[in-house]
Amino acid sequence: MVSKTQNQDWHPNIWPPFTQITNSKPQQEVSHGKDALLFTKDPQQELIDGISSWWVTLHGHSNEYIANAIFNQAKSLEQVIFADFLHPQAKKLAERLSKLTQLERLFFSDNGSTAVEVALKIAYQSWQNQGETRSQIIAFEGAYHGDTFGAMALGERNIFNENFDNLMFPVKRAPWPSTWINDDDVERKENEAIQKLITLLKVPTVAVILEPLVQGAGGMNMVRPEFIQKVSEVVKNNNSLLIADEVLTGFGRCGSLFAFKRANIIPDLISISKGLTGGFLPMGITLTKEKIFQSFIDESPRKTFWHGHSFTANPLGCAAANASLDLLEKEPLKYMSLEKKHFDHLVKFRKLPFIKKIRITGTIAAFDLELGNKVGYLNDIGKKIKSLSMKKGLFIRPLGNVVYLLPPICITDDQLEKSYQIIWQTLNDL
Ligand SMILES: Cc1ncc(COP(=O)(O)O)c(C=O)c1O
């Protein structure tokens, strides 16, 4: 068979994620990483990891404290079937996360998509277990919740999932009132979104799911905490459940330990992953209120939550997560201080006429570029910026025309300054 691979630099046995190899640069080999830096070979280069390796690396690469916690755990217990056995790291993690979120029950899985799938399945079945059949699910325009079928169905329908359109269940959508610095129209947009949500909620609804404060993959679209508060209120008043997908926003990313805390709400279910293990190991957790768990307690097998994964509550992942929480608790300033630092750097970007919608929430800073041909993710200006920035020592991965920084919280002031200088130079070179 004739290979359609155009570029022989791609590895012949690897199928890279989210990539069309005919128009992308081949993966570069990384020899090691330390703190906010990645070190590549061929060419040998030191790169600032400006997006925390797909938003997971929290305290930096190869953090010794977390590495030692995993090493020590591996010497005593690496894996055990969680349906029959408990282990100290899972107990400790469950107790800590439950205390921090005020949600009493934790269900372990493997990644962000599964943490969302589990939340949705629990919400759906909990109504059935209480004798009520509901099918309407509400998500927001521009949402992204993962790539497995359920999570994919919750996300905005677009080029990434249109091939599977016939296989996805229907989801109702409310507008997402994205805002930015100096946005005069924010209240009108929020009111419109809330009115739409109230109308949709007239139909008994399984759950409303959102990414609190920041929609990540949809384009780093940020909303005010006030909006999240209003959504929570409306969901409660209409007797539905609120699922907070904190896969990206959790663990300090939005300037508070969890984004929902900044909005001063308590969701009914929360999905977490990515930064959960400090970005060291794949793990997902779905947290729920005790009341929801209680609706599954019954002699009838039909009321059981028949769901589980081989690596549920893997001891190495739990050890990494406990170590990561230790670090977050020891130095909360690391995630709390980045918002102001981003702001101080971004102020001067306002001078560039093609930069629009500057926005910052916690450790995440973004803006839109009014340049390039297509709208959204397929605008190739992002690829150009990525390539030029890499040559100067910064790894970023714009979402089409949305340029953003989401660095590990250990990034030094000098490294952050250098990152902004590189973006500035790159934009001026375009
Ligand atoms: C908000 C949100 N939910 C879910 C996911 C899916 O997580 P994973 O890639 O670990 O399956 C992502 C991934 O980017 C995400 O940003």
Structure summarized in a few sentences:
By secondary structure, the protein is α/β, with parallel strands linked by helices. It folds into two domains: 139 residues, Alpha-Beta Complex (Aspartate Aminotransferase, domain 1), CATH 3.90.1150; 266 residues, Type I PLP-dependent aspartate aminotransferase-like (Major domain) (Aspartate Aminotransferase, domain 2, 3-Layer(aba) Sandwich), CATH 3.40.640.10.
Note the topology.
Elements: E1 30-34, E2 37-40, E3 45-49, H1 52-55, H2 64-76, H3 88-101, E4 105-109, H4 112-129, E5 136-140, H5 149-154, E6 172-174, H6 186-200, E7 205-210, E8 214-215, E9 221-222, H7 225-237, E10 242-245, H8 259-262, E11 269-272, E12 284-288, H9 290-294, H10 315-330, H11 333-336, H12 338-346, E13 355-361, E14 364-369, H13 381-392, E15 394-395, E16 402-405, H14 413-429
Parallel strand pairs: 3-15, 5-6, 5-7, 7-10, 10-11
Antiparallel strand pairs: 1-2, 2-3, 4-12, 8-9, 11-12, 13-14, 14-16
Helix pairs in contact: 2-10, 3-10, 6-7, 12-14, 13-14
Pyridoxal-5'-phosphate binds at residues 111-113, 116, 144-146, 211, 216-217, 245, 247-248, 273.
